[in-house]
Design brief:
Strand content: 25-35%
Structural class: alpha+beta
Number of strands: 8
Shape: globular
Distance between the termini: 57 Å
Helix content: 10-25%
Number of domains: 1
């Protein structure tokens, strides 16, 4: 009986919604080009970008609905990450932490891009963080 209970707990834990905490996104840039439409699966219609120190009020303003960005990541207190939020209508499909040392999306903070227009290029920069610009 104990084994059944433990197995059930493990299964439920593994099935918990990805909405609990931001996951890491491993991008596969080709010649510096990142195409989120092909890299991020799911039924999302837009990606919204939040740079360091973005809070819930900014998330609501940008997304058009309430979203507790602060409890899902360290974005409010960290300058080393950006958050990419993939949304469809008024719901979050997925969201990812992006270390700025890998690809610095912070220059695009507060903006959303449709799935069909979600290509970006990564450039070297003086700051040491690879700068991401819209293609």
């Amino acid at each position: 009986m104990k084994l059944v209970i433990i197995a059930t707990i493990v299964m439920l834990w593994g099935c918990s919604e990805a909405g609990d905490r931001a996951m890491k996104l491993d991008l596969m840039p080709i010649n510096g080009l990142v195409d989120l439409q092909s890299e991020v699966s799911g039924n999302w219609e837009r990606v919204c970008i939040f740079g360091p120190y973005s809070g819930n009020s900014m998330a609501a303003e940008v997304l058009g609905f309430e979203y507790d960005l602060e409890s899902k990541s360290a974005i409010l207190i960290s300058d080393s990450i950006s958050i990419l939020v993939f949304a469809e209508l008024d719901r979050i499909v997925s969201f990812y932490e992006m270390p700025r040392s890998y690809a610095d999306f912070s220059g695009l903070s507060g903006q959303c891009f449709p799935r069909s227009d979600s290509k970006f290029r990564i450039y070297p920069s003086q700051s040491g963080w690879p700068e991401v610009k819209k293609v």
